[in-house]
């Protein structure tokens, strides 16, 4: 049997030549390299790279988990010592969003298990971290090692032991720690129940403070505002304290008189109490009789308020209207209803407006509503056609607030002085020799005279 000729250039065997085999192998290698590169590119896209610096890194190795809230989200890429610190690089999977203030913490799930790195806090909204994060020593935390814990316990036991605080002084007395324990046991003996109640009450008080922390903080804030106000008014506060000190000193100097006054006041209060007791019924009847008066004042509260508001202005106007030189009041009585006498009489028929809240008056006004409307229209026609032209010549015109007096009133218009008062030049005192004796006809009357039909 002869071996096949692999060098043949025709037939099926022509594809298995050494040249074709080498090309096929090279193609497979290139395809694997390209696939690996593509896989690496796509797997690294969207991931987050974190470079964290820890004070130490015990139990953290390449490949250790990176977790958020206990869920694995990445791996440790490398652990590199750098002097007194350790640099740890990590990669967080795609689709994981981290907050801008992210921190890295080494967590010990148990004493012998491998540690992992916890990223905290979990993202819940707000600014996001970049895809390349660098955390310094202040942004990372490491747990307390068991050796350090044992060392601290040993140091504490040595400090409290027979060579430390519990050392005897050579007189046979117990050490300070032993005496403390013995004294505490003696004081607490039989008080266990009370101690438990005290602890329970303290727990309740703490819970109350915790539940009312908002009000507590508001109180502290208000107290801070109050203290700030005192600081800003330091001079006034010092002055107030000085005045209070002077007042207290005055009371101390007058304590005898004050004691005597209080003693007499006690007798007076006793007499008042006796008077009230003897006249209890009369006082009750008096108070009961005052009820209608107080009710009337309450019903007229708005009117009283208006009177008290307008009264000072009225008094001021009255003072300003008084002419001391002539002894008269320079004022004008204004009666607006005189402009429309018939309309005023028509409005008197509208009892609903005069007695608001009275159902009978309201019903009466509703019944006479057509008549009131006709009366007002008729009154307007009469006023406009008949009374309006007469108002300037009637004495009502000067009091109507609408028609002003046209003719000047003596003594009230400049250039038309009152003959009895005279001009300022005529009131100039004459020389004693030429002054005529006063008579009843030239003496100025101090009685106010009506002016212009007022």
TrEMBL record:
Organism of this sequence: Gordonia alkanivorans CGMCC 6845
UniProtKB keywords: Membrane, Transmembrane, Transmembrane helix
Ranges where the Mce/MlaD domain occurs: 47-121
Biased composition (Low complexity): 435-454
Lineage, opening ranks: Bacteria, Bacillati, Actinomycetota, Actinomycetes, Mycobacteriales
Region of interest (Disordered), ranges: 407-454
InterPro entries attached to this UniProt entry: Mce, Mce/MlaD, Mce_C, MlaD_Phospholipid_Transporter
Entry protein name: Mammalian cell entry protein
Domain called Mammalian cell entry C-terminal: residue spans: 139-306
Pfam families assigned: Mce4_CUP1, MlaD
GO cellular component term of the entry, any: extracellular region
Domain of life of the source: Bacteria
């Amino acid at each position: 049997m002869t071996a096949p000729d692999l060098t043949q250039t025709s037939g099926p065997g022509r594809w298995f030549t050494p040249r074709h085999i080498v090309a096929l192998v090279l193609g497979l290698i290139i395809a694997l390299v390209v696939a690996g590169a593509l896989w690496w590119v796509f797997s690294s896209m969207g991931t987050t790279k974190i470079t964290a610096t820890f004070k130490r890194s015990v139990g953290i190795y390449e490949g250790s988990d990176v977790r958020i809230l206990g869920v694995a989200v990445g791996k440790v890429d490398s652990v590199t010592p750098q002097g007194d610190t350790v640099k740890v690089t990590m990669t967080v999977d795609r689709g994981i969003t981290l907050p801008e203030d992210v921190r890295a913490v080494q967590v010990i799930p148990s004493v012998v298990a491998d540690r992992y790195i916890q990223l905290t806090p979990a993202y819940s909204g707000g600014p996001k971290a970049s895809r390349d994060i660098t955390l310094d020593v202040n942004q990372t935390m490491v747990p307390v090692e068991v050796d350090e814990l044992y060392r601290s316990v040993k140091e504490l036991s040595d400090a409290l032991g027979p060579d430390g605080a519990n050392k005897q002084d050579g007189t046979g007395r117990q050490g300070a720690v032993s005496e403390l324990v013995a004294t505490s046991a003696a004081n607490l003996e039989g008080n266990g129940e009370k101690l438990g109640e005290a602890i329970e009450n303290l727990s309740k008080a703490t819970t109350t403070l915790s539940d009312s922390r908002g009000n507590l903080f508001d109180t502290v804030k208000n107290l801070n505002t109050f203290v700030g106000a005192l600081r800003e008014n330091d001079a006034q506060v010092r002055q107030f304290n000085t005045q209070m000190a002077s007042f207290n000193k005055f009371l101390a100097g007058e304590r005898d008189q004050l004691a005597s006054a209080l003693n007499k006041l006690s007798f007076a209060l006793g007499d008042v109490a006796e008077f009230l007791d003897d006249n209890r019924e009369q006082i009750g009847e008096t108070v009961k009789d005052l009820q209608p008066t107080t009710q009337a004042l309450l019903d007229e509260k708005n009117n009283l308020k208006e009177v008290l508001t307008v009264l000072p202005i009225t008094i001021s106007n009255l003072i300003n209207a008084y002419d001391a030189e002539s002894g008269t009041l320079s004022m004008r009585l204004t009666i607006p209803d005189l402009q429309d006498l018939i309309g005023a009489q028509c409005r008197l028929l509208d009892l609903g407006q005069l007695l608001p809240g009275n159902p009978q008056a309201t019903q009466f006004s509703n019944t006479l509503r057509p008549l009131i409307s006709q009366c007002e229209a008729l009154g307007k026609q009469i006023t406009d056609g008949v009374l309006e032209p007469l108002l300037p010549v009637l004495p009502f015109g000067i009091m109507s607030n609408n028609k002003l007096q046209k003719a000047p009133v003596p003594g009230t218009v400049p250039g038309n002085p009152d003959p009895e008062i005279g001009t300022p030049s005529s009131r100039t005192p004459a020389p004693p020799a030429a002054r005529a004796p006063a008579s009843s006809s030239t003496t100025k009357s101090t009685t106010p005279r009506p002016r212009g039909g007022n």
